[in-house]
Backbone:
């Protein structure tokens, strides 16, 4: 189980606030971990890199992890805009390929006709409501799954591992702000043509760092790329993971360290699952 602590950190309240909201068993576990009651939380927060011990405590695999029975593995990378997904998907693709797997890297929104409508909405060219966007993303996602030429289902059935940049977790986090997150969740999770991933890895980076990185990389900003929106999305990701934690394998990786160590953390997470 993901601990409540990681989810509270994702929401971004200050340490004093986290301590107040942390369930007693989580606080107890943390205190036991650091061998002291006082300052256990600060000891954790002051970590710049999560070592093995912390990973074991905070990122452990859900007890109910189901084997999908499919031949290929379906891994999703999620994160705020600017968290480094593109870079790390490519590094993971190379690492798994070097291990002898056939890997297909893909992304949402896709390049389908619906994906084009979504891009027009994201750029502000053709504004859409959150509910319209949720429906467009779902339509694009269904096509992404079932497309006979390069659909996710076909790859998984033929033993290819699929790594996807964003999936329905993003719909819950982004469209769940101005639409109804429960409705967005239901239509995605209950859709028979939307495959449940084997794992979702969330690259966790502070809002400030995401904005810093985006300022360097982006020429134009999309509708979600404002500080206020990124903060709200981050909170919604925490809600999403809390909502899905019982049925999904969700891992949170600290993305605020060197490229190599983040890549290693992602690779080790994947290796630990399968
Ligand atoms: P990206 O290609 O830079 O990741 O941009 C995709 C944008 O689309 C990003 O701001 C997140 C947003 N998005 C949603 O709002 N809902 C979704 O379901 C997905 C997949 C992405």
Residues:
């Amino acid at each position: 189980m993901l601990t409540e602590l990681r989810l509270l950190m994702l929401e971004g309240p200050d340490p004093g606030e986290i301590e107040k909201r942390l369930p007693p068993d989580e606080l107890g576990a943390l205190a036991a971990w650091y061998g002291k009651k006082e300052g256990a939380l600060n000891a954790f927060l002051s970590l710049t890199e999560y070592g093995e011990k912390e990973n074991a405590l905070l990122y452990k695999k859900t007890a109910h992890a189901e084997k999908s029975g499919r031949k290929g593995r379906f891994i999703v990378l999620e994160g705020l805009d600017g968290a480094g997904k593109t870079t790390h998907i490519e590094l993971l693709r190379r690492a798994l390929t070097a291990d002898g797997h056939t890997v297909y890297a893909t992304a949402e929104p896709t390049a389908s006709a619906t994906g084009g409508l979504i891009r027009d909405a994201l750029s502000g060219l053709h504004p859409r409501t959150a509910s319209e966007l949720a429906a467009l993303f779902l339509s694009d996602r269904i096509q992404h799954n079932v497309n006979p030429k390069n659909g996710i289902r076909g790859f998984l059935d033929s033993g290819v591992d699929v790594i996807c940049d964003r999936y329905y977790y993003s719909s819950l986090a982004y469209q769940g702000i101005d639409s109804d997150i429960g409705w967005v969740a239901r239509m995605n999770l209950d859709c028979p043509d939307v495959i449940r991933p084997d794992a979702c890895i969330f690259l966790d980076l502070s809002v400030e760092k995401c904005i810093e990185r985006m300022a360097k990389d982006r020429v134009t900003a999309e509708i979600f790329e404002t500080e206020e929106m990124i903060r709200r999305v981050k909170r919604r990701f925490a809600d999403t993971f809390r909502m899905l934690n019982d049925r999904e394998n969700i891992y949170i990786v600290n993305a605020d360290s060197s490229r190599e160590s983040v890549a290693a953390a992602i690779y080790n997470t994947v290796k630990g699952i399968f």
Summary: Residues 4-56 form one domain.
